Model the fold of this input.
Amino acid sequence: MRAKFALAAALLLLAARPALAIEPEEQLKDPRQEARARSIERELRCVVCQSETIDDSSAPVAKALRGLVRERITAGDDDKAVMGAVVARYGDFVLLKPRFSPLNATLWLGPFLILVLGAGLAFVFVRRSGAQAEAPAPLSAAEEAELAQVLAQPTAEDRPA
Amino acid sequence: MTVELGHYALVLAFLVALVQAASGLWGGHSRNPHALALSGPAAITQAALASLAFAALTWAHVTSDFSVDNVYRNSNSALPLIYRIAGVWGNHEGSMLLWIWTLSLLGALVAVIDATLPPTLRARVLGVQALIAVGFIGFSIFTSNPFGRVFPTPADGMDLNPLLQDPGLAFHPPFLYLGFVGFSVAFSFGVAALLEGRVDPAWARWVRPWTLGAWTSLTLGIGMGSAWAYYVLGWGGFWSWDPVENGSLMPWLAGTALLHSAAVVEKRDTLKAWTILMAITAFSTSVLSTFVVRSGLLTSVHAFANDPKRGMLLLAICLVMTGGALALYAVRIGAVKGGGGFQVVSRESALVLNNVLLTALLFTVAIGTFWPILAQVLFSQPVSVGAPYYVRTAVPLGALLALFMTLGVLIPWKRGDVRSVGKRLRSAAALTLVAGGVTFWLSGESKLLAAVGMAMAVWMVLGALGDVALRTKLFAVTPAESFRRARGLPRSAWGGALAHAGLGVAVLGMLGTSLWKVEALTVMRPGDTLPLAGYSLKFDALFDRAGGNYQSEVGHFTVSHGGKVVGSLEPERRWFPVAKQLTTLAANRLTPAGDLYLVLGDPRGANNEARVVRAYRHPLVGFIWLGVLIMVTGGAVSLSDGRYRLGLPVRRRTVSAPRPPAEPGLVPAE
Done:
């Protein structure tokens, strides 16, 4: 029963989506190299999956990419060279942190620009409100006239006793 | 027959919504008493019909009527009752019907509760609400009919997606939708205010409960979704910056901005144009999010519909609605005049700045989500955007937000004085710096990120505590007097403090699990022991267990800490024969210090006697959801504030008071 279940499970593993990623056999012996590999893999996209890193994905292509990363690390490449090797083969598409380029300027500078622009507009608005808080708006001509009329009317104290 | 009745009711609801839209908008414009009087009853009728339609589909699911295509494809006779009910919205057509039902119920609630609104404003709000309903009911009827039949009737159903068979996920969509759709009321109020050409503190007070209710539901819905992602998907994370997750974050950010800017309108009668813009944005991003999920444009786990025709129609609804509202905004916003002034150092300024930061965050999430499509369309360049992008953009913005959030809480309205604010902040700032410094010193890797995160969390919690301490004059007067003041504090003040503290607590959890996670991946045979972060996990046995509609394989592990047995864990793998799908069910042991998390993986060994085992130690992770619960509690407490009770003091509401009535013996409210 168990063997049957395990077999059925193994066969269907590809069809299902268990989010189980890297397999124990892929791990590198040196824990420091392994940690480097994992952190690089978290920056790379599984090209056939949607929004999954190769660290998260169980797809064959993710496994192949992990293989490449680990191969380059074992060969002694530094992190930058490993990334370079992966990009050379799979293109910029694999980078989950897109390169800064004129093309991606909106993506990288947009948030900053919005912040600066927003802060600028906010500053103008706040300054204007501050000025308004100090000096109340002058009365309109109609209001002046009304005020004058009210003031001109004799009040109780003005009346002769 | 029941199902046909449901279908019929949905079509009638569509027609009634048309009548409601016409009467509401025309009535608001012409002040025709008959038209004005019609929109309320129409809203109630529409809700009754939509309820009938929803009940009919639920009935078909509960009774397992497999002659209905929707039931056949998303249910099974062996499915437990709770998932037969959850199956109603666990699919495209049903979830759209849930959306419509929620929308019409809220519309009816506006009609019933806000009966004291000025008649033209009320009619216009109901009219806009009905226009939205026309769009979505039309979408359902014409492209996503949940009431279709299959012939011949299948003997049994194809089962609900096993990943959705989980209590956390069963109730995640209703709360999320209540949040999304709840913003529709703020949207309708915003558009109606533009039509009226008038925004005042009374308007802000009417909108407040709706916005707050939507925000609270959305917070809960997002929290439930991330909890589900954490313990069901078994990948050991809580948020992956997936387009769908981002889709729920965008309305949350806009809604948070709206909540705060509406407070400025309410208390100080200024920032009106911005508030209207946020009311439009909060619901527009909700619809955009629905479009993203439903169209499969940015496919992910959540997308169970990949039909371009549906996508196009939803996009059209989204564009017409947002475009229409923004065009109206451009034409009419000049009529909305600003009001009270305030000094540069004031709570108003801090709230303005926080709105700027929230907008920048919203933009970041939006551009990150849509950039891959934009780059493809504009430059034919495939680009991916993932977590590493958001860590570098959204996290710094979030840190700034945390900084100004607490400043805002501690600066008084209208006019603050730098020296007294400095005095109030002194101890909180000192403690925050100490916490950040200690974290920096103790952390191995990512020192800076850890220090900034810890400082953020501590600063937000201290700010909230400090706010309450100041309002109750804690330590400055006798404890009895402080207690009296605490009891007299308006509930909205408690709610705000709780929400701010909750966010700080949640950040603490995110920080712990993101930076200090320890994990192990290995092959274990029964009898093997795995050491992890001071714990020792002994794999005792592997056995089969039969569930209702699945078979499962369970690993039994004994957990010891410091040589003492502290408990056991049973991670599971479930096989759903009908859906032909395997799911993993992680086992975890949650304590305040962290979570021990175990996943059973594929078979290994000559006789399949061994298993791949993934073990994680997630420090502080429970604080994420504790924080969410605190925030939700804050929202609920604030919602229960008597001063904002819906439909109450008629006179005070229609006369637009420039500021809320001051409670005797209190510091000025908020």
In short: Confidence is low (pLDDT under 50) at residues 1-19 of chain A. Residues 24 and 34 of chain A are 11 Å apart (CA to CA). The radius of gyration of chain A is 35 Å. The longest helix of chain A spans residues 105-134.
